[in-house]
């Protein structure tokens, strides 16, 4: 009798434990250990389709094609139906609609808390990665506040003085070093050395990034070019510039040592730069490069990580035209099609009919602007970029120094805990709310 009672008690205990496990697994909200957000202008329907075809034809599958959860994202600014980089990034980073040209500020000019600062307050490690300048609006909206996105030196100062970032990888070293050392800063500050004095490990090359020990290192900053980094198609084998996938992989390896988890924001900035000069092939190769970086994140972060990728805005209205064959890919999708029509066209940009009035030519955004020479002054940041050498701009319907942003819904995709909230038509501020819920 005693043994039977003991066995019955053991049986009931096992049932209770099993029920508790199932309850926790299926009904209790579990926070993701890692949260990774990819932001890029290549995640629109037109660009993504064209990139897929360019990569391998109609039957090609990209990494993003495997994501189960997705939504179409509206992205209007508070004051304009078509957002610029500052407004689009602000909505994603803070969950609040801001005006064009305002970084992490509400329409009244009040500073907004970003998801990166909230992650830091929650005890998570934080990181930013970009193929552009670390002061570009698309990434600086996560740590800086300004109504002048062209003030790249002021934004650089905010990264050093105010940001709570454990790892930052990208370009833009010239805006962190004084003119006396070959940089562009006119205030004499050497922010690069100031970062070292704050305890950051500093790296300049891919080899240094790869050889920096993970467990013996504190916060880390890597800057691999004076301004925007080189296009992925221009990075040769053995180059000292890491790829976007390299930076994402190393960032994950560093950040995941924090037992409270981490938040990593990744910006594929060179998609915008290529789109503004109608360099269609580079738009497609940079979109594919972002897709490969997303694959790297899936491999190294694990299935307990929330991974979101969202299109920020559309630049130039790139469209793939005509009737390519299923197997057509690569250069077969460039130039003139068999029917005599341009295979890829854009709505605006440098290779189009000249406008009747110069007053309606759009101004370039800071993301596309080349690094000015020390003698040219800050106003050089406002000059339109030159098309990359040996790159033919695709034809545009309307001529402008740079292609302008267009009204087009973006795509948001996700995997991991919390990504199931992506569904239907959503506002871009919802991305912030999904990220915040995962902290």
Describe this structure in words.
This protein is α/β, with parallel strands linked by helices and 439 residues long. The chain has one domain: 3-Layer(aba) Sandwich (Alkaline Phosphatase, subunit A). The chain contains twelve helices and 15 strands. The chain has helices spanning 2-26, 45-56, 85-94, 115-121, 137-140, 152-161, 191-197, 206-211, 244-255, 270-276, 280-301, 429-438, and strands at 34-40, 69-74, 125-133, 167-171, 201-203, 220-223, 262-268, 305-311, 314-315, 319-320, 344-349, 396-399, 405-406, 410-415, 425-427. The chain has a ten-stranded mixed sheet with strand order 5-6-4-3-7-1-8-14-2-15, sandwiched between helices. Strands 10-11-12 form a three-stranded mixed sheet. A two-stranded antiparallel ribbon has the order 9-13. α8 (206-211) links the parallel β5 (201-203) and β6. Mean pLDDT is 88; it is low at 21-28, 360-364 and 368-390.
Separation of termini? 52 Å
Biggest sheet overview: 10 strands, mixed
Structural class: alpha/beta
Architecture, according to CATH? 3-Layer(aba) Sandwich
Mean pLDDT: 88
| Count of structural domains | 1
Query: Under the CATH scheme, which class?
Result: Alpha Beta
Beta fraction: 15-25%
Helix count, per DSSP?
12
What is the percent of helical residues?
A: 25-40%
What is the third-level CATH name, the topology? Alkaline Phosphatase, subunit A
């Amino acid at each position: 009798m005693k043994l039977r009672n003991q066995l019955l008690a053991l049986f009931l205990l096992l049932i209770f434990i099993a029920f508790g496990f199932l309850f926790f697994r299926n009904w209790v909200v579990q926070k993701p250990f890692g949260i990774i957000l990819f932001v890029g202008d290549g995640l629109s329907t037109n660009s993504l389709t064209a990139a897929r075809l360019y990569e391998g034809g109609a039957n090609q599958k990209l990494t993003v094609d495997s994501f189960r959860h997705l939504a179409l994202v509206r992205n209007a600014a508070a004051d304009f139906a078509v957002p610029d980089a500052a407004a689009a990034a602000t909505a994603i980073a803070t969950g609040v609609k801001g005006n064009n040209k305002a970084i992490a500020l509400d329409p009244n000019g009040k500073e907004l808390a970003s998801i990166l600062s909230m992650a830091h307050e929650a005890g998570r490690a934080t990181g930013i990665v970009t193929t552009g300048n670390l002061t570009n609006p698309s990434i600086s909206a996560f740590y800086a506040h300004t109504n002048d996105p062209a003030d790249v030196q002021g934004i650089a100062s905010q990264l050093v003085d105010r940001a709570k970032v454990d790892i930052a990888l990208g370009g833009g070293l010239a805006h962190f070093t004084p003119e006396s050392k070959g940089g562009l800063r006119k205030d004499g500050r050497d922010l690069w050395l100031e970062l070292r004095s704050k305890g950051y490990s500093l790296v300049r090359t891919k080899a240094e990034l790869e050889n920096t020990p993970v467990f013996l290192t504190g916060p880390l900053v890597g800057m691999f070019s004076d301004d925007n980094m080189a296009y992925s198609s221009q990075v040769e084998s053995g180059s000292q510039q890491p790829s976007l996938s390299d930076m994402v992989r190393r960032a994950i390896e560093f950040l995941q040592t924090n037992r409270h988890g981490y938040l990593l924001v990744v910006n594929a900035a060179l998609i915008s730069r290529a789109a503004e000069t109608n360099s269609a092939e580079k738009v497609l190769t940079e979109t594919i490069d972002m897709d490969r970086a997303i694959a790297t994140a899936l491999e190294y972060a694990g299935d307990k990580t929330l991974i979101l990728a969202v299109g920020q805005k559309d630049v130039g209205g790139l469209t793939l035209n005509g009737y390519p064959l299923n197997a057509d890919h690569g250069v077969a999708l460039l130039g003139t099609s068999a029917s005599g029509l341009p295979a890829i066209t854009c709505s605006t940009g440098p290779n189009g009919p000249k406008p009747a009035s110069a007053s309606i030519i759009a101004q370039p955004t800071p993301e596309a602007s080349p690094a000015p020479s020390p003698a040219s002054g800050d106003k050089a940041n406002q000059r339109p970029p030159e098309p990359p050498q040996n790159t033919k701009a695709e034809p545009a319907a309307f001529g402008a120094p740079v292609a302008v942003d267009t009204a087009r819904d973006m795509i948001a995709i996700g995997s991991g805990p919390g990504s199931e909230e992506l569904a239907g038509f959503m506002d871009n501020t919802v991305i912030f709310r999904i990220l915040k819920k995962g902290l």
